[in-house]
Amino acid sequence: IKECDWSSDVCSSDLTTGPFLLLGHNGYQAAGQDPARGYIYWPQLDTRRQITSWTRREVARKIQFLYAHFGFVRRLVNGMARMLGYLTPQPVSSDEDWNELAFDTFMDIAGSAFTWDMSGKFDFFTGQIKDNETIGRDGDLLCVKTMRPGGRARMAYYEAHQLANYLTAGRGWVDGVKVQNGRHVSYSIRDSDDPTKLTEIEAWKCIYLANFENRGQIRPLSILAAAVLNMQDVIETRGFNKQAIKSQSRFGTVIEIGRAHV
């Protein structure tokens, strides 16, 4: 092994068992640059700033394509959500009569999609499964607590693409989330009918559903983000193989050996 020049920022050592490493005054080879390996590009260590708006949009776009065209991806998302199932709250006070009345009242609201869901699509129970599907596919989901005209509880649901910054959003806004000391303070929701219209809702009026990977993350990506490129390779490789088989079957081919035809 060659002796290093410790006055330099980079130490080059020729290892007898492999290619040399460029080490910056330390013994950890994981920190070095090895010509036999590619350069690892990871520009941001601040977990709050690792996911940009462009990153979120492109990852979501690719995953939604894979979800629509690759049955394996759809099974991953939907299968896990169904296996998780749903929870049913149970009143457990000392008053059994009150418990029964409270449970029946809750079931009247939660068991009806028309009553529970602002869009009237899913009730409290099937909605939990759909919530987990949405989180697995898109990364997050925002539930806003609201009421029916009669005063009963109701939930309004907003998907990941509906969280967006105002055009004049100032410091502290990250992809539709206003943050203060790492805490979600409020959300900016894009109107489904008029994309130019946004509404700000305080966080205490909402339930934000997501699987955070670290404490600095503002909005996480889909759990499928790490597998996007591999899944794209599978689809493309499979398509190339199918195209090769189809192209070959369209043409009759012969192998000539001398004057004979095989």
What report would you give on this structure?
This protein is of the alpha+beta class and 262 residues long. The strands form four sheets. A four-stranded antiparallel β-sheet has the order 5-6-7-8, with no helix packed on it. It has helices at residues 53-69, 71-84, 96-110, 113-116, 124-138, 228-250, and strands spanning 11-13, 21-23, 140-147, 153-159, 173-174, 177-180, 183-190, 198-202, 206-210, 256-257, 260-261. The radius of gyration is 28 Å and the shape is extended.
Query: What general form does the structure show?
Result: extended
Helix content bin = 25-40%
Count the E strands.
11
Computed over alpha carbons, the radius of gyration is 28 Å
H-E order: EEHHHHHEEEEEEEHEE
Mean pLDDT: 87
Largest sheet: 4 strands, antiparallel
Low-confidence stretches: 13-17
Count, helices: 6
Beta percentage is: 15-25%
- Structural class comes to alpha+beta
Q: What gap, in angstroms, lies between the N and C termini?
A: 62 Å
Strand order of the largest sheet: 5-6-7-8
